[in-house]
Specification:
single chain, about 100 residues, mainly beta, SH3 type barrels, 5-stranded antiparallel beta sheet, about 5% helix, ribonucleoprotein, spliceosome, mRNA processing
């Protein structure tokens, strides 16, 4: 993953703010962070070693300004060529009534 070990700030839908270094993200946008500082609305800041956040609870993610987004957003994996569709022989015959 290109953003591993980057420090991000995440705001959750309930207003909680979480800042930590990314350990991993899965296809459901679940995020796993380490060295976490979490501030729940109306409470004091907490520090945690690790935290996992369910993807559907995330409102937005603030990326660090130092990230070179121009290069990170480029898809560097080779594209697969679409397979050629082969027509069956009966589809080329004229329709007889």
């Amino acid at each position: 993953m290109k953003l591993s070990h980057e420090t991000v700030t995440i705001e959750l839908k309930n207003g909680t703010q979480v800042t930590g270094a990314i350990q991993g993200v899965d296809v459901a946008m679940n995020m796993h962070l380490r060295s976490v500082k979490m501030t729940i609305r109306g409470r004091e800041q907490m520090q945690l070693d690790t935290l996992s956040i369910r993807g559907n609870n995330i409102r937005y993610i603030q990326l660090p300004d130092s990230l070179p987004l121009d290069t990170l957003l480029v898809d560097d994996e080779p594209r697969k060529k679409p397979s050629q569709r082969q027509h069956s022989s009966h589809s080329l015959l004229p329709t007889v009534l």
